[in-house]
Amino acid sequence: MSAPAAESPPWSDGPTARAPRVAGSLSADVVVVGAGLAGLATAHHLLASDPSADVVVVDALRPAAGASGRGTGLLGPRVGPPIDVAARRFGPSVARAAHLASEAAVARVIDLAAAVGAPAGLRPGGQIVATRTASGLASLARQDAAYRSLGLTVPVLSAADIRRRVGVPYHAGLLYRGAATLDPAAFTHALATACAAAGARFHHDSPLLGLRPGTLRTPSELRFAEGTLRARKVVLAVNADADRLGLPVGTVLPLRVHAVATAPLAPEVRAALGGADGASLVDGSPTAPYFRLTPDGGLVVGGGRVSHAPRHEPGGDGPGHDAASRVAAWRWLEERLRRLHPGLVDVPVAHRWSGRIGMTVDGLPVVGRVGGHPDIWYIGGCCGHGLAMSVAHGRYVASHLTGPAPAGSRLPWHRDRAPRLPLASRPARALLRAHLRQLERAAHRTP
């Protein structure tokens, strides 16, 4: 009889040493709140530009405790809605620039992972977005037409092409070259270690309680349970905690998503499911299952149920939170896992876990100034594409904090706030729940 699945990802736990809490009255040149990839990338690039800068990184728990350590390790180019929707909604030039920027973001993550000594688990390989439904075929056809009209090269894969790469039947797909998979927690911890080596000071177990913006003469003040931090420049890489803190950045919805991972597969099953070229597969239908291999030869499957998850405690994903819903989501993912390939019928599920992502109403991230203050920045709302986007946003914000940003460097999706969703009203919350249930039903209908 196999052991029960661990309710945690199969990723590296990283360093166990804890930094002190924020206590007393402290100060710094720059305070970065959030020791995930966005916050750490900001600190890393700040210190690379100015090694003498006094940079403090604060986290409610510890590095990689949130989405950056609980993701599934898919590194692919995508920002905002599908390319055809983006071209229609924002204009062709913006859609094209955004896609190219997302491709550059993926390449920079690969380079940064190698630079900070975290190549373990990093595996280049194409990312396939595929479908098994008629509506999915129509959607991919629209995307293919949009890519071609914008002069972007995203090859179309036939059913036979996909079967050769990942051994699972799909009708058709799009291949995103230059993608990769990696251990997100190991990367986050390696980035934290590099920041500390460069001189960043860390404080753990310190949830931010409030912020008083500074003036021309006074620094901003950040309030914690046991002390305060004062700094001229502040970066709030807090993702979906923006609403809890009352930040005027629009609505960044905290949504809970789920994944499971198997024990190592038999060599022939591993080879059939992408072992030859490291390809990962994402179903084109929202919340439908996606999968990729892990460095030890297991398989990660994510997708399915999505639920609104306002934070009620640091981390927001304790074992007691919505346990029945999480177990049901994991059970459904395991059932879908068994159907992917005959070689997966009896493989043990070794890990199952949940995590929170930040979603915006229009699918675009928020990276910009808080309330128009020139030296207080917010990063969040990557809508499930945070592995590449978070690092890109940290680099971008650091370039603005260290001096005039280079000409032409403005991100196509730079903005100070997302559209507002009035979640304080009961009708809005009911509509959100109905929409999420609809997405879940659609995922369950996917063959």
TrEMBL record:
InterPro entries: FAD-dep_OxRdtase, FAD/NAD-bd_sf. Transmembrane segments: none annotated. Residues 29-398 form the FAD dependent oxidoreductase domain. Pfam families: DAO. PANTHER family: FAD DEPENDENT OXIDOREDUCTASE DOMAIN-CONTAINING PROTEIN, SARCOSINE DEHYDROGENASE-RELATED. This is FAD-binding oxidoreductase. It comes from Streptomyces spiramenti.
